[in-house]
Amino acid sequence: MEKVNTVFRLPTSLENLETLSSAIRQFIAQLELDPAVVYQLELATCEAFSNIVRHGVNHDPEQSVGVTLSYADGGVEIVLSDSGKPIPQAILRALAGRDKSLPEPDPHRQASWPESGIGLKLIFAMMDDVSYRSQEGRNELILIKHV
């Protein structure tokens, strides 16, 4: 299959999670992927969007997130771009290196679950490759899943 690309913008409101989810499902439907892969792509992307809304732009409805969905050479790439606060470098280093400096929650003790930060761990766990860059006031989170 040749490269397939969809680009759109969403206002930074959690109310747009369903719109994002629907767009992902519609884009991926043509690829006939394993339902588990579809779930991982949708979950990671919605978590990333939610993080941008909550932490990057602090629910500012005047902001928006650019979304690019691409498929080529056996991989799905999803790029989310925004102009909010960047993800702190210390957190990115810890996640990229699978560093143990971020606490591991005990699945049987809810008190050990962090109030925030687990979403990024989830995104890194669901995707085959995650990269991030922040320059000139724009942030880009690139999620790749090999299929």
From TrEMBL:
The lineage of its organism: Bacteria, Pseudomonadati, Pseudomonadota, Gammaproteobacteria, Enterobacterales. This is Anti-sigma regulatory factor, serine/threonine protein kinase. InterPro entries: Anti-sigma-factor_SerPK, HATPase_C_sf, HATPase_dom. It comes from Enterobacter lignolyticus (strain SCF1). The keyword Ribosomal protein does not apply. Residues 11-145 form the Histidine kinase/HSP90-like ATPase domain. It holds the Pfam family HATPase_c_2. Keywords: Kinase, Serine/threonine-protein kinase, Transferase. CDD domains: HATPase_RsbW-like (cd16936). It comes from the Bacteria. One of its GO terms (molecular function) is protein serine/threonine kinase activity.
